[in-house]
TrEMBL record:
Residues 248-262, 270-280 have a biased composition (Polar residues). Residues 248-280 are annotated as: Disordered. This is Spindle assembly abnormal protein 6 N-terminal domain-containing protein. Pfam families: SAS-6_N.
C-alpha cells in the first residue's frame, strides 16, 4: 500500500479501501433507486486527501490548458525553436479570502510525465516585485481572477492566446501568456516557476495513483449495481449490452479533444513595455 505524509502529520494511508467517497446512492432497492443510481459521483473525500491542501489552501481552478513547452538552449544566443504542444494541468490554489488573499499558488502537472511538477508561489509582498517589473495595473486581490481569465482564453482561443513554458536547466521555468495581435505578439503576463522537490513530487504521485484507484473502484461498484438493476428489469437487454462492443464515440471524442492547433513561432526577444496590462 502506498502512503504519503503531510507537513505536521504522520503517515496517512490513501488506500482505496480507506477513502469513503460514496456516490449519491449506492444500494439498489427497487424502482425508487433508478434516479439516484445514475446520479453523479461524489469524490469530495478523495480530493480532500490532496497534499496540496495541507497548508490550508483551497482549489479555485483546475483545468488542462494547451502549453507550448520549450527547453532552454545551452547557448543563450541560439535561436529559440518552436516547442512541443502539450496539455498541462493548471491548478490554482488560494489561501485566505478571495477578496483579501494571503497567498496564491499555481501547480503545473502533466499526465504524460508523472514527475513533471512545477510551482508558482506568490504573496502580496512578492507580487509587488512582479507588479513593478512588468508594470502591471492590477492589484494582488485581482491576480487570481486575471490568471483564471488568461488560462481560459488560452483554452477557448488557442490561436489568439498562447501559453509558452520555457523550461530552464537550473530547475526554474518561466510561463509567458502571449496574445497574437496578428501583426505582432504581445506578452500579457510572465510567471516564474520552480521545479518541486523530490518529496513533494513523491507525495503528488502517491496521491494521484491512489485517487485514480479509488475512483475506478467506485465506478466499478456503480457498474455492478447498474448490471444488477438491468438484470432484474430486462435480462435480455443486459445480454445485449454484454455482447455489444464499446462504442467508438469515446475514441473519436478523445482524438478530437487532444488534437492540437497549429502553434506559430514566437519571437525570442521581448520588447519593453509590451504588456497590455502595463501602465500607460
Amino acid at each position: 500500500m502506498l502512503s504519503t505524509s503531510y507537513p505536521g502529520e504522520g503517515q496517512q494511508s490513501l488506500s482505496p479501501l480507506s477513502v469513503h467517497a460514496q456516490p449519491a446512492a449506492h444500494a439498489v432497492s427497487g424502482p425508487a433507486a433508478d434516479g439516484p443510481m445514475l446520479s453523479t459521483f461524489d469524490f469530495t473525500a478523495i480530493e480532500s486527501m490532496d497534499p496540496s491542501l495541507a497548508e490550508g489552501h483551497r482549489v479555485v481552478y483546475d483545468r488542462e490548458c494547451p502549453f507550448e513547452l520549450r527547453v532552454q538552449e545551452s547557448d543563450a544566443n541560439a535561436p529559440q525553436e518552436v516547442g512541443t504542444l502539450e496539455a498541462i494541468k493548471c491548478k490554482i490554489l488560494l489561501l485566505g479570502d478571495q477578496a483579501c488573499p494571503q497567498h496564491v499558488r499555481v501547480d503545473l502537472t502533466s499526465e504524460n510525465d508523472l514527475f513533471f511538477h512545477y510551482t508558482h508561489s506568490v504573496n502580496e509582498s512578492s507580487f509587488r516585485g512582479m507588479q513593478e517589473a512588468q508594470k502591471l495595473m492590477i492589484e494582488f486581490p485581482d491576480y487570481m481572477n486575471v490568471l483564471v481569465k488568461m488560462l481560459n482564453s488560452c483554452i477557448k482561443s488557442p490561436h489568439s492566446f498562447l501559453a509558452v513554458l520555457l523550461l530552464k536547466r537550473d530547475g526554474k521555468a518561466q510561463l509567458d501568456i502571449i496574445q497574437n495581435m496578428e501583426y505582432k505578439f504581445v506578452e500579457l503576463l510572465s510567471l516564474d516557476f520552480t521545479a518541486s522537490p523530490e518529496e513533494v513530487v513523491r507525495q503528488q504521485i502517491t496521491f494521484r495513483y491512489n485517487s485514480l484507484k479509488s475512483k475506478v473502484a467506485l465506478m466499478q461498484a456503480r457498474l455492478q449495481d447498474i448490471n444488477a438493476l438491468v438484470k432484474v428489469k430486462n435480462p435480455s437487454l443486459l445480454l445485449q449490452l454484454q455482447k455489444t462492443p464499446p462504442s467508438q464515440y469515446g475514441q473519436q471524442h478523445h482524438a478530437y479533444s487532444t488534437s492540437s492547433p497549429h502553434v506559430s513561432p514566437l519571437p525570442q526577444a521581448r520588447t519593453a513595455n509590451t504588456s497590455v496590462m502595463s501602465r500607460r
